[in-house]
Write a structure and sequence with these properties.
This protein has about 300 residues and is an alpha/beta fold. It has one domain: Rossmann fold, CATH 3.40.50. Helix content is about 35%, strand content about 20%. The chain is built from nine helices and ten strands. Strands 5-4-6-7-10-9 form a six-stranded mixed β-sheet, with helices on both faces. It has a four-stranded antiparallel β-sheet with strand order 1-2-3-8, with no helix packed on it. α8 packs across α9. The longest helix is centred in the N-terminal third of the chain and has 25 residues. The model has no long low-confidence stretch (mean pLDDT about 95).
């Protein structure tokens, strides 16, 4: 599709090419990343039309949809995910202050998070765009995920918490999800968004080979300032920011794999450890961050 000549976040025409990145998962195609000099927003330029986007997810290695455990990298992912599901739930319980809540998870993949939430006796609905992932969730996890259009029919002020765990960066029209979230959330409801952070040590180290660019599946690339700006435009106020501590290790190992490095897991472990240590002194340098927003009336 035609590229942007203005920043889609702030409208500035002061943009430049940051990197040219390769789709290492499916196509091998190259996509430019553009940087706005005014607001520091980074976005994938010349990305494929939405109607063609599904083909870029068609890989058994795209674990969010396939749930594969083949290979050492995917086995480690499953181990880390089990730990992180519990950590995410603790975050929600602490930040919401609720002992029981209704949750809408947008971009549920194969339903691992909604399933975990329900096992904790919280109410949870899941939205997933991929029909294949929805079918997998139903057949393997006995969890019915809803298609994206179902969000339009949800009752106003009916949900306590909306979560987007590494999904906002995939949406062709993120503003539509902010509008929907503001409508659906109860008064003082919580919007929770997890995102890669291109201000992190690992992003700077791996440059165009940083796995979390993940072009063209990731369209938008945030840092703490730009997600704050976007959420503020849609009447959400930032409450707090938390780290996702294991993401630096996984992303670094995958980045080393992209580099065709010898011993990518070991090298990724070292890079992830350095990134994590740096983030202890400056949370804005963390590889992945979770942002907690309150609905502003």
């Amino acid at each position: 599709m035609p590229g942007y000549n203005k920043c889609p976040l702030c409208g500035s025409g002061s943009i430049t090419v940051l990197y040219e990145c390769t789709d290492s998962l499916v196509s091998g195609e190259k996509f430019p990343l553009s940087l706005c000099k005014s607001c520091s927003f980074v976005f994938t330029n010349n990305y494929p039309p939405e109607k063609d986007s599904g083909g870029y997810y068609q890989s058994d290695d795209y674990i969010s949809h396939s749930d594969t455990s083949a290979g050492m990298m995917n086995k480690l992912y499953h181990i880390a995910r089990s730990w992180m599901l519990a950590a995410k739930f603790r975050m929600l319980r602490k930040e919401s202050g609720l002992k029981s809540a209704s949750v809408l998870d947008i971009g549920s993949g194969t339903a691992s998070f909604p399933l975990y939430i329900r096992k904790k006796n919280w109410k949870c609905l899941g939205i997933e765009i991929s029909r294949e992932a929805r079918d997998y969730a139903l057949s393997k996890n006995q969890f019915t995920l809803l298609p994206p259009e179902a969000i339009d029919d949800m009752e106003a002020e009916s949900i306590d918490i909306i979560t987007m765990w590494h999904t906002l960066e995939h949406f062709y029209h993120p503003e539509e999800y902010f509008y929907a979230a503001h409508k659906i959330l109860k008064k003082n409801g919580l919007l929770v968004i997890a995102l890669p952070n291109h201000w992190s040590y690992d992003a700077k180290k791996y440059r165009d080979l940083w796995a979390a660019w993940d072009v063209p599946r990731h369209l938008w690339h945030f840092n703490p300032e730009t997600i704050h700006l976007l959420a503020g435009k849609h009447r959400f106020k930032l409450r707090t920011i938390k780290r996702l501590p294991l993401d630096a290790f996984y992303v670094s190992a995958l980045s080393e794999k992209h580099k065709n490095s010898c011993l990518p897991l070991f090298r990724g472990l070292i890079a992830g450890l350095i990134s994590s240590l740096i983030s202890l002194f400056n949370i804005k340098k963390t590889s992945s961050l979770v942002y907690f927003f309150r609905k502003d009336q």
